[in-house]
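Collaborator request, handled under Task 6.
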Amino acid sequence: SGVQDICVVNEDGSNMKALTANQNPHSHDSQPHWSPNGEHIVFASKRATDHWQIFIMTASGDNQQRLTESHFNHPDFSPRISPDGKKIVFVRAGLPKAIHLMDIDGSNQISLCEGGSPSWAPDSNGILFVRKGKIYFHNLLDDSEKEIGEGDYPSYAYNGQKILFCKGGLDKEQIWLMESSGLNASPIVERDGSITPVWSSR
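Structure tokens returned to the collaborator:
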């Protein structure tokens, strides 16, 4: 349905600039995510092949590099740079869908665990993810997993004390909040169809 590029724009809507410029009408760039220092952007792209892979570029759109080389039936998507700027977590589709981890330059790629919807802990030592409708925490220091609760699209508050997430099923999703331990979960937006909540930085 046409070319899809990544753009930046001032907060008042002025000075829109395309960072990617795909010429192939079937090429798409999507899911951009800034590095914490603002120097790089990681994103999913379907430009090099006919399926999604992970790319990285500078904030100005220069030095665009492909980081992953997935197979046709295992596209890569949902890249997220760690708060310390050293790692990238992403999802590789397949049966089962799996969370993968790599260094910021694409080296040392590993399959971490089965699941999706990854989100970094503020200290970069762990990742929230979802598997079969339940939210888990994967500790990268000892490679352990802990079930936190039920839901989807989890994300930590900047101080790591709270987790924002969705719960409710197809077209019935509501936005919930709970402690990082999984306790005291309660809805904060009781409106069906509310998904993918995001925290402010402070």
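The cover message to the collaborator said: "The chain has a mean pLDDT of 88. The radius of gyration is 17 Å. Please let us know whether this matches your experimental observations."
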